[in-house]
């Protein structure tokens, strides 16, 4: 993934926090999907192998945070 993706996720999380809705942090994402916080950070910042599972997980995260394609 690129920095643009990580930046877009961060913007969505900040927007959600200002609006008082979940998810508003990477911790919320980790808790929702039952993942570890470091793994969610690595996913968002593109530090995991580029596999089908990774792409599916990122698409799930994008939908959960309210990011449009």
Describe this structure in words.
The protein starts with a helix and ends with a helix. Helix 2 crosses helix 3. The model has no long low-confidence stretch (mean pLDDT 93). The chain has one domain. It has four helices and no strands. 14% of the residues are buried. It has 69 residues and is mostly helical. The longest helix has 17 residues.
**Main sheet record:** none
Strand content: under 5%
> What is the overall silhouette?
globular
- What structural class do the secondary elements suggest? mainly alpha
When the domains are counted, the total is: 1
Radius of gyration: 11 Å
Instruction: Summarize the amount of helix as a percent range.
Output: 55-70%
Annotation, overall tally of beta strands:
0
- N- to C-terminal distance: 14 Å
Order of helices and strands: HHHH
User: What is the tally of helical segments?
Assistant: 4
| Uncertain ranges | none
Mean pLDDT across the residues is 93
Tags for this model:
DNA binding; mainly alpha; HTH cro/C1-type domain-containing protein; 69 residues; single chain; Lambda_DNA-bd_dom_sf
Briefly say what this structure is.
With 69 residues, this protein is mainly α.
Topology:
Elements: H1 3-19, H2 26-33, H3 37-44, H4 52-65
